[in-house]
Amino acid sequence: DMADLLSVTGLVKKARDMFPNRKFDQLIQNAGILPTKHSLSPQGHEIAFAANVLGPHLLLRKMIDEEVLKEDGKVIFTAGDLYITLKGTENVACTPDFTYLDRKGG
């Protein structure tokens, strides 16, 4: 669960324990959610921000700090724009800027 920062930290520990003498060549960051209503992560962050930004950042940071990712390892971030086609997302971010962009199509 990328929105749960303890889960992300646990994933890095598990990878290190499972492969103690190996390092990853690549990290592909593909997590992404667009909730239909406001909710919080276990640590109290807005759920989409936690899953889409904080979790992936923490995963990369931990993999570097714990030397699980090779020094010259490659990191790939994916993104999508499915949110542009959704209606009724005005309350997701609860901000005027988001609502404006949502109504203008991105």
Automatic annotation (TrEMBL):
SUPFAM superfamilies named among the record's database cross-references: NAD(P)-binding Rossmann-fold domains
Entry superkingdom: Eukaryota
InterPro entries per record: NAD(P)-bd_dom_sf (IPR036291)
Name of protein: Uncharacterized protein
